[in-house]
């Protein structure tokens, strides 16, 4: 049987998962594919530590470039992460016409244009299924299954750490700091959690999804990003009273020749499928013109789920190489359109506002007056005896309004003497 | 730009959707694929009726064989349905090495072996994404995305008609007959609803999914099938009290070298993703050894969602043909294993039993005695004042038990003088 040689760059958690997956299911893959995937070399700076899988000592090297250059390596699997050496090695492999599989969302979000162009120029395959959604085959769905569709919107829960923290805050009534600390102790959050909880990881993934949906690499710095740090558990409780759950969403939404790409905590209706996605799970809801709503759900991270997708990409490449059909598909298939990113100030959506007035008569009238003057109409108001940090908030759900109007209204409200704390503003979607 | 010629067999709802999708998004598909999909011929017995799409009169013919033979037709799209002329035309196309796209689940469930062998022998492509799940790319996920995985189980809500009826029964408290009649009036159920509500449509889809998961065409007559006809709304209500919702599930579950393939109304926990799938939507939950749980959700039927998947298959074939890479993938990739279908009598699962005793003292002790004697242990019991058809039922949830033991126990219970009606038995999964 024909073989496809795999060179692994990075022998961390996912790398070890890929090795384990191959050892466990390599024979079955060979049956399915008619091509045998064979691990040839593994490069890592640390080739001493035990990863829980057994590999021949001569397979390991600290020289990653040698793995890329090895003529027995047909597919380079980049699991190093970051945009330094990983970028160099990916470009080097593609320049040789070798196939590349990567799970590196940051690299693709920041250097996608350069990498996709290199793949195109050398008619090389680049697959990046594991860069978004771990074990969920969402990249394949967008790039292939929905190829006949114009994407209207994508809503994604793309970060397991954030979703786990939000689930704990809601179900156990934990404060953000407590939930984060618990998540860190359980290994669901990094010691330095910023990449996750400040929304940057989700933003990288949003850039990749938007590029696939609209056929052009998108600039990562155009994405509006707000994380979940400092989210108050009171807001999760008020949201529930209105029939919503708060999720950190990546939102990609087409509006004419503009596309919104934003990441922020978002109220989603309790009866939506996205509201049912709890704990470390991820999900992506795609709305497109022919298929309508489709949703993809599963483990967004983890050793074996991510390895599943890396190996699924290798399976695709094996099928291509068996038929001498490399570059059967562009990295980011063009759609014939050029969309620009809509500034967040131009976004129209519904808002959740928690205002913190001193308990003075007439203050609610002041709030509604300020909102009304800017054309922001109110759907419902909640003012209850429960206090947040010692004060009784007013919670307002608005009808659809313009972000810049809401910004201005909040600025005006927060300048009132009768307002004790900055207004909390969250957005409502789906 | 290179073109790929499409010949459409069957100009019904989905056929018209394919034409509409091509008219709407054909240019975009050409950009994405680098190959232009072009509709060449349409065959139907009726070439007069208005389908809501405009096609050139000379494109229409009543001679389906001529469409298959047309040298300008590279892909034959079979949307006739059934196992008569559809089977002949599919085999004829494959025999010529032409690519085939079909949405015909009955054909594949009953004649899959013959059709897949013909594709193999002629190195022809056969894609059948729309045969299961309408707009949901579940076939692609199983055949490609999860190629590195051993599938442990699949649970599918695969029939929108049944799911719609069950949702109406639960949310509106309708009796089965009323909900069915409403569904028929709204066009969600056929005038002759048997294929849907008696579970056969779901069974056909289960056979296709099981074949893909385990790498071998499976005999459709081995599937245990129970539909939702005559399901009592009381059972939906009792299920809810225990924390479950009733869904018609296709269940495919591996146990060593056997595989269970069954279709029946099933209690699923309210907090499972499957319980959130309401109305005409479909979903498939796959559990596999590397990816763990993944779920795919969307419109299980309908003109444009089904067309989306048909056109997605055409996109794949276009990419293959552009690289001279036909038959890049087997219809049903082998896994190197041979599994047999487990008889339903050997299934072990949890049960919901609704027993209908006359209100006599000691009858509950008799029931529990009969169950206990067969090793069926009880997890919970509910006996409430509410009556069903004038009687007060006893509802029992069991721990895991053997189907044949439960059969025998029910037979013994139903023979008791104190039992007024046959026991209702449902299974609990997920």
Task: Describe the structure concisely for a colleague.
Two copies of one chain form a homodimer. Chain A is of the alpha/beta class and 430 residues long.
Which key features would you list for this structure?
Alpha-Beta Plaits; 13 helices; homodimer; 37% helix; 430 residues; Dihydrodipicolinate Reductase, domain 2; 18 strands; alpha/beta; twelve-stranded mixed beta sheet; Rossmann fold
List the helices and strands and how they pair.
Two copies of one chain form a homodimer.
Chain A: E1 3-9, H1 13-33, E2 36-43, E3 60-61, H2 64-69, E4 75-78, H3 85-95, E5 99-102, H4 105-121, E6 126-127, H5 138-145, E7 151-157, H6 160-172, H7 176-185, H8 194-197, H9 200-214, E8 224-225, H10 233-241, E9 244-255, E10 258-269, E11 281-288, E12 292-299, H11 303-322, E13 340-341, E14 348-357, H12 363-373, E15 378-383, E16 394-398, E17 401-402, H13 403-414, E18 419-428
Parallel strand pairs in A: 1-2, 1-4, 2-3, 4-5, 5-6, 8-10, 10-13, 10-18
Antiparallel strand pairs in A: 7-9, 7-11, 9-10, 11-12, 14-16, 14-17, 14-18, 15-16
Helix pairs in contact in A: 1-11, 3-4, 4-9, 6-7, 12-13
């Amino acid at each position: 049987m024909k073989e496809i040689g795999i060179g692994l760059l990075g022998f961390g958690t996912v790398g070890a998962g890929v090795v384990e997956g191959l050892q466990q299911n390599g024979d079955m893959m060979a049956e399915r594919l008619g091509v045998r995937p064979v691990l040839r070399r593994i490069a890592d700076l640390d080739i001493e530590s035990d990863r829980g899988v057994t590999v021949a000592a001569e397979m390991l090297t600290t020289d990653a470039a040698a793995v890329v250059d090895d003529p027995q390596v047909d597919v380079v699997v980049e699991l190093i992460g970051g945009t330094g050496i990983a970028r160099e090695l990916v470009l080097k492999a593609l320049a040789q016409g070798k196939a590349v599989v990567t799970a590196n969302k940051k690299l693709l979000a920041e250097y996608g244009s350069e990498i996709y162009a290199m793949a195109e120029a050398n008619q090389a395959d680049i697959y990046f299924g594991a860069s978004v959604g771990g074990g969920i085959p969402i990249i394949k769905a967008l790039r292939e299954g929905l190829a006949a569709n114009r994407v209207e919107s994508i809503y994604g829960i793309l970060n397991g750490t954030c979703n786990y923290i939000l689930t704990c805050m809601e179900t156990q009534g934990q404060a953000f700091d407590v939930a984060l600390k618990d998540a860190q102790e359980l290994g669901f959050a990094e010691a330095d959690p910023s990449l996750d909880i400040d929304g940057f990881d989700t933003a990288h993934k949003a850039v990749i999804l938007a590029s696939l949906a609209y056929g052009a690499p998108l600039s990562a710095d155009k994405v509006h990003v707000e994380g979940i740090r400092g989210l108050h558990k009171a807001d999760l409780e008020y949201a529930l009273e209105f029939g919503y759950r708060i999720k950190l969403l990546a939102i990609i939404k087409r509006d004419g020749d503009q596309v919104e790409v934003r990441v922020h905590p978002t109220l989603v209706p309790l009866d939506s499928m996205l509201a049912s996605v709890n704990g470390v799970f991820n999900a992506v809801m795609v709305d497109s013109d022919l298929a309508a709503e489709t949703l993809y759900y599963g483990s967004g991270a983890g050793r074996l789920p991510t390895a599943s997708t890396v190996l699924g990409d290798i399976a695709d490449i094996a099928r291509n190489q068996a038929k001498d059909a490399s570059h059967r598909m562009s990295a980011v298939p063009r759609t014939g359109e050029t969309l620009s990113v809509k500034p967040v100030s131009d976004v129209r959506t519904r808002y959740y506002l928690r205002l913190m007035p001193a308990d003075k008569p007439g203050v609610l009238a002041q709030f509604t007056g300020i909102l009304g003057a800017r054309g922001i109409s109110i759907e419902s108001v909640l003012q209850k005896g429960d206090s947040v940090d010692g004060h009784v908030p007013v919670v307002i759900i608005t009808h659809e309004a313009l972000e810049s109007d809401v910004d201005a209204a909040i600025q005006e409200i927060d300048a009132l003497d009768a307002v004790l704390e900055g207004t909390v503003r969250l957005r409502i979607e789906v």
